[in-house]
Write a structure and sequence with these properties.
This protein is of the alpha/beta class and 251 residues long. It has twelve helices and eight strands. Strand 7, helix 11 and strand 8 (231-234) form a beta-alpha-beta unit. It starts with a strand and ends with a helix. Bound molecules: phosphoenolpyruvate. Phosphoenolpyruvate binds next to strand 8.
């Protein structure tokens, strides 16, 4: 059965000290909560090893926000999947729209990153989603399908089964404008159908598909109540333990 997951994406926020405090606060809150989902915080590279030391990995998972598309070597400033895994992290966000948009990450590059993440036993949280223009011109199903096909459909069924997907309509990220729960459900059901066509119903049914885009405590419950929405990837609301926990407990 697929898992319900709430994952935080801290992006380029918090100093190391602030990040450690935030991780400790989330970890502390989880000690007394009985969440009906797995929880992961995806933090800047600089924070990974230190955060790993202050959280209880039985209740809180740890992920990076990116990794390199090369194994190792002369790639100044890059951080490899093996380096990420060596910190204790178990997850990595790949294909976030900000990486695609600002850093030119293509389907090919992302394919390499996914392969390297899997080779290092990291769970990719693979982001897909259309921009506003594509929502408005009606091409959004084709766009999302192409993103999945372009980076993931050369994987074996076994490896595809290790991927977590995050549908993040770009027009809803950081804008305060959330997709409605019906819009999210419509896309998530479509994505599950695309997976079923390629890998079969069992793989599709076992794939966790998270929603991301201005998810907050006030709208999380309605989104998570939809049958094909298996949790959330949370940006802004993950930067405070209280709001993040408000989403975690929405299940
Ligand atoms: C994100 O960037 O992954 C995200 C969902 O951001 P926000 O929640 O701030 O819209």
């Amino acid at each position: 059965m697929r898992k319900n997951i709430v994952a935080g994406n801290w992006k380029m926020n918090t100093t190391l000290q602030e990040g450690i405090k935030l991780a400790e606060d989330v970890n502390e809150a989880l000690k007394t909560a009985t969440p009906k989902c797995d929880i992961v915080i995806c933090v800047p590279f600089t924070h990974l090893a230190s955060v790993n030391n202050v959280i209880d990995k039985n209740i809180l998972g740890l992920g990076a926000e990116n990794c390199a598309d090369h194994v190792k070597g002369a790639y100044t400033g890059e951080v490899s999947a093996a380096m990420v895994a060596s910190t204790g992290a178990t997850h990595v966000i790949l294909g976030h729209s900000e990486r695609r948009q600002y850093y030119g990450e293509t389907a090919e590059i992302l394919k390499e990153k996914v392969n390297l993440a899997l080779a290092n036993n990291l769970t990719p949280i693979f982001c897909i989603g259309e921009v506003l223009e594509q929502r408005e011109d009606g091409s959004y199903f084709d766009v999302v399908k192409a993103q999945i096909e372009g980076s993931l459909f050369e994987l074996s069924a076994e490896d595809f089964g290790k991927i977590v997907l995050a549908y993040e309509p770009v027009w809803a990220i950081g804008t305060g404008k959330t997709a409605t729960d019906d819009q999210a459900e419509e896309m998530h059901a479509f994505i599950r159908g695309v997976i079923a066509d390629k890998y079969g119903k069992e793989v599709a049914d076992n794939t966790s598909i998270l929603y991301g885009g201005s998810c907050k405590p006030s709208n999380a419950a309605a989104l998570f109540a939809k049958p094909n929405v298996d949790g959330g990837l949370i940006g802004g609301a993950a930067l405070e333990a209280e709001s993040f926990m408000g989403i975690v407990t929405a299940f």
